[in-house]
User: Fold this.
Amino acid sequence: ADLAAGKAAFDKYTCASCHGADAKTSVMASYPVLAGQHEDYLRHALGAYKRGASGAPATANIRKNAIMGAMVAQLSPADIANIAAWLSSLPSPLAVRK
Amino acid sequence: ADLAAGKAAFDKYTCASCHGADAKTSVMASYPVLAGQHEDYLRHALGAYKRGASGAPATANIRKNAIMGAMVAQLSPADIANIAAWLSSLPSPLAVRK
Assistant:
């Protein structure tokens, strides 16, 4: 995966509007911290939103979400891999909270 | 929410089997880090799995996942609130990674 392309895609698709430019200061607490999360999990989650948005049957491993469904519909598999890799590489402030 | 009850529920429902006893060393990288995640988001995610498992229509905000669906089916609304609060309160090592 290409970390720089991941950051570019994160910017291009305006992910920061909800998740914050640093992917850790989301605008609402009902939106997750992404910085430092496992790359594999992020890729899984984005794929599940994509399957949910594309009308996949309600079998295992889909997510239906109006916002994220619309966002990921624009992403190619390479975008998803690059975004997940870049987010996973980011430092996260969570440990500072305590 | 009751943090001690949240920890007790995390233990009782064997969440640690996949997510790790500290909720940050998951057994597979396709399972997320939970420690330090936003409480509201964790509550949302658990609720979405619960709606998905209960045969809710494929409208917005459901998650279909065989593992998590079976897990959350056992949880009461109070369990979900307590678990989310406890997980959110945990320190997370993510910042140490860089």
